[in-house]
Amino acid sequence: MQVLILGAGIIGLNTAYTLMQQGYQVTVLDVKNEVGQGASFANGAQLSYSYVAPLAGPGVLGKVPKWLLDPNSPLRFRPSLKPADACWNLQFMKACNTKRSDQTTSELLKLAYLSRDLYHQLFIQEKLDVDFSSTGKLVVHRSQSSMDGAVKQLEVQRRLGAAEQFALNTQECLEREPALAQVASQLVGGIYTPSEEAADSYKVCLGLKAVLEAGGVQFLMKKGVRKIERQADNRVSVRLHNNETLSAEHIIVCLGVESTALLADAGISVPVAPLKGYSLSVEIADPAHAPSVSITDFERKVVYARIGSRLRVAGMADLVGIDYRIDPQRIRALIQEAQGLFAQAGDYEKATQWAGLRPATPLGKPIIDKTQYRNLYLNIGHGALGLTLATGSAHLLADLIAGRPHELSHLFNQQAAKA
Q1: Cα-flanking dihedrals φ and ψ of residue 273, to 5°?
Q2: Which of 59, 160, 313, 404 could make an SS bond with 106 (beta carbons 3.0 to 4.6 A apart)?
Q3: Phi, psi for residue 257 in degrees, rounded to 5
Q4: What global pTM score does this model have?
């Protein structure tokens, strides 16, 4: 094989598409029976190009005790004594300062805007049916102190190169999104970004698969990787669970949270931890009461995006290890939040429930990197921004393989070696 991509999620498929477009012969491997079954399946659906600030930010550490004590907190941690977890937590704490947060935000904005341009090319060229919308995003605030902080952050974002954004009062928020009328008394204002978009990540995956198959890309589904095996010439091969061995000129790991243990066996340490998120997908019963603009409820850390005839509600962040179970308590909290904001949009009790593990790094930046092995590359660690950053990350990875310099490459290929 010329290129073997491990992982058929939004990152792996975009990587396959970019390399196919550049003339490579590509094979994609995944343990699932269909593409997009991991963190790509039912995420928040927002293409959040201007909202890429990392979780590790100033003021976060002061909130940790409250999060630990509140079972309904938007962010929940399970204390761990594992060395890898302790190392991740330490790096996260060191990153919780204004200087580091602003630097990471600036770097992610550049990658996000590259992704935006590449998504527009992809959607136009391939005519993908992905419930795409470009109605913008409104982040609503429930307290004056929160809104004041958002206005200050708006100035920071402007300095860092973010797209045009507007501070709106309550009435202006309602004019922008009438479906917020029932909670008007609870809102003090919001930040509106016209250039934000939304799409169904799973439909993007399915659409890409069809394009890739038509272009000659081979898919090896229902094949799991047992081990990355070192070879004598400083290269690696891949041993599958059925003991089959696969070799390739270039092997690219795009396995999200499953990458960490697999790479550790090959002597590669990466700071990627599972950050569990939850979502509801509800059929819209009354379009007038469902938002057409993507909404983020800032204090409650819940996002809303209309994708076709459905409303996607997503939120929560549980750092609880590799655990794919759907926590009924978290789903109940998400239903209550949705009912409180858009009660008449649909029947949330009948919504499709989902939980997925976001592959998060302490700094909030993905790892797009070479390894010590000549033919092994990484495209992992995108956290909650996998959908948003997928096309840009694939572009950087393709440049890395081809040896082409890119002005952003140095920002995202330093973490693996220093992990």
Answers
A1: -120, 150
A2: 160
A3: -65, -20
A4: 0.95
